[in-house]
Amino acid sequence: MKNLLILLAIPLFLISCVRDNDEDNKIGETVSLNLELDLNLSLKKSDETNKGVGLTNKFSEFAHIFKDEVDLVFTSTTTTFSTTLTITPNDLSNTPTLVIPYGTYSWSILDNEQDGNVDYFLRSYLPIYGNGSVEIYSSEVSIGLLVDTNFGLVTVEKENISSAKISLGDWEKNLILEGDYFYLYALQSDGYQLSIDESVYNTTITRYIDSPNILYAKTHYNYILAFSDVDVNSISIKSSPFTQYDFYLQPTATLSSTCSLSLSPYQSQSYLTQTVSATSSIQTVTFSTSTTCSETINYSVSGLPAGVSMDIIELTYPRISGTVSSSVSSGTYNYTITAFNSTSSSTATVSATTTGTIIVTNTNTTTSKTVSLENNRGLTIDTNNNIYISEYRGLIKKVDNNKNITNFAGNSQSGDEVGDLESARFTNPIALDFDTNGNLFVSDHNNDKIKKIDINGNVTTYASIDRPNGIFIDNNNNLFVCESNGHKIKKVDSSGNIYLVVGSSQGNFNGVGDNAQITSPQAISMDSNGYLYFTSQNQIKKIDLNNNQLSTFHSVNSGSNFALRGLAIDSNDNVFVSVNDDENDLHQILKISQNGVQTLLAGSSNGFKDGLGNQAKFGGAIWHMGFDSEGNLLVSDQYNGAIRKIDTNGNVTTL
User: Fold this and answer.
1) Exposure string (b/e) for 373-388, b if CB count within 10 Å is 16 or more?
2) Nearest to 14 by CA among 139, 99, 122
3) Cα 5–10–14 angle (5° rounding)?
4) What is the pLDDT of residue 364?
5) Across 211-222, average pLDDT
6) Angstrom distance (rounded) from CA 58 to CA 15
7) CA–CA distance, 133 with 357 (Å, rounded to integer)
8) Which residues are 625's β-sheet partners?
């Protein structure tokens, strides 16, 4: 068994288990220890047989990444005393002070939370765990902490690689770019599949990790893109904190020769732009293809109005024709035809495009924009009723009052970067809110951070939180956040200081501050009297911030696969929550008055339908929602990729 050793050393002091002679006189006294932390990773020699044949040893150059904060808990073995020291293994420049009574203690480290989803199996940091005991009867003491991990490391060297991801069954996650590597830590298991997008031939290479398809703990699997001058079966092993295997991947495509391909109108250029009314036929437009390629030429088209289509005449003459549908709205439809060959061992892919325009007039319909999103979760609204939406893939989008959609921050490449709006990266940004100065805050869930986007477009890390979910910012710019993995509600003041509001461990107990227990809080908001509300399992919890007293505001009858997700509070302090009940196929928005009266606002079974009350349908879990200035409730309908508006009468429409 390999052991990972992290040594927290207090230098210049005697390392000894011998107690002071006046030990008995020190019972009840305390000692202040100034700890200088030194994080050393070492690996005991393994007696296991190498998994490869004829492999050579090298030392890994990858610097491990740990959780931003790790709690080291000391518990007295003779009294009820217990204390927690938070260490930052990624930054050991600080020297924390620990004040502790003399005595014998057990210690434990655990940051390997089981949250039941892909983030449990695949991590951006190396989870560690461990426990032991130590005697403290002198200020001259050294504490050695022997910890272990169940995770292995997967890296892909970034040269000629555009992206990489790991999948496990239905789950998948993008590897994170760090220096010269894409990386992820993965829990010891079998069946992991690695997909790599290379940028030389623009192909995707897919393979199972290791052989026979098992990823082992404390093992580093490093993948390197190789071409014909490197033996694809050449494998070397590196031995260091993790035993490392290098796998060389060779794309099957080649660029040995190319052919030519062009596409142009066969008829008069006047037909490329034409105006037609709905229910009328367009002027047929035929195009001609010229090619030296030996393969069959394929065609695709996009942008045509309904009723108009493309067909192929004599293999190389695509034709646009048809009758415009009566339901087509007035507007300009720009279409593009693309011709392309199929790849072979001797010819690379080539393509050619041409464009045309069809202007449709229809007096029976009006032009209407529909806001189209992808896997949208977070939602907030600024003072001008612009809507900001976060998408799971890492994009923050802005929807203005005319339903125009623009990318506000990030892009579709997940990651953890700060900087300007374009270079910033997020991974599953799950919630959004504005402070009174117009700064936008993002709950960057998978990166364990709250990020701030200021009014000048600068993106910075504001606070580190363990899997943050919902956030709410009050009029004093205090930010309240649901820490889902830590089962806590925390407060981040306007200076960035973090305080515990309620919660200690997973459970359901209405206490004060850290005596309370909650489970995976989801969404959070505040009423006009300054009381906090948040969703936790099938309950709406309420916090009196005068004394951090937790109570249960309302419970909703639930099945075995049930949860309350989104939460919003209107100007009359009515509380609105979204219900996700997969067992009974119910996806609803409920209204609960301050007297505890529960009524259905909208929703029924899973689907996508506008209507009044229970005639409307939503597409599964509603993560976040909020009110505009007119009192309409706006809902982020994730699985329908839409924003839904619910007026005060419960009438649901789609933006």
Assistant:
1) beebbbbbbeeeebbb
2) 139
3) 105
4) 61
5) 73
6) 33
7) 77
8) 635
Nearest to 144 by CA among 72, 208, 86: 72
Q: Which residue, chain included where needed, has tokens 């496990």?
A: 168
Q: Please give the C-alpha separations between residue 247 and each of 17, 181, 233, in angstroms, as whole numbers.
A: 47, 14, 8
DSSP string, 416-454: -B-BSTTT-B-SSEEEEEE-TTS-EEEEEGGGTEEEEE-
What percent of the chain shows pLDDT beyond 90?
33
Q: What is the DSSP letter of 365?
A: -
Paired residues of 339 in beta bridges: 299, 352
DSSP states of 292-356 as a string? --SSPEEEEEE-PPTTEEEEEETTTEEEEEEB--TTPPSEEEEEEEEEEEPP-SS----EEEEEE
**At CA 89, angle to CA 88 and CA 94, rounded to 5?**
50
pLDDT at 401: 87
DSSP 525-585: EE-TTS-EEEEETTEEEEEETTTTEEEEEEE----SSEEEEEEEE-TT--EEEEEEETTTT
Q: Which of 112-121, 155-164, 281-290 has the lowest mean pLDDT?
A: 112-121
Distance CA 124, CA 399 (A): 31
First to last CA, the chain: 58
The first and second tokens of residue 6, run together, are 């992290």
Given a contact cutoff of 8 angstroms between Cβ atoms, the answer to whether 188 and 123 are in contact is no
* Count of beta carbons in the 10 Å neighbourhood of residue 201: 16
State the average pLDDT over residues 262-285.
80
pLDDT in tens, 64-105: 888 888 888 889 998 888 888 887 777 766 656 677 788 888
Q: Which residues contact 38 (CB under 8 A, 6 or more apart)?
A: 7, 8, 9, 11, 92
Radius of gyration (Cα) for the chain, nearest Å?
Answer: 30
Residue 22: HSE in the Cβ half-sphere, 13 Å Cα cutoff:
4
Q: Which of 148-162, 285-299, 525-539 has the highest average model confidence (pLDDT)?
A: 525-539
Q: pLDDT value at position 290?
A: 85
- pLDDT (tens digit, 9 = 90+) per residue, 422-462? 899 999 999 999 999 999 999 999 999 999 999 999 999 99
Q: Which residues pair with 166 in a beta bridge?
A: 173, 194
Q: What is the per-residue pLDDT across 226-248, written as a single tens digit (0 to 9) for each?
A: 654 433 333 222 223 455 666 65
pLDDT over 70 (residue 27): no
Task: Determine the Cα–Cα distance for residues 554 and 576; give it in Å rounded to an integer.
Answer: 11
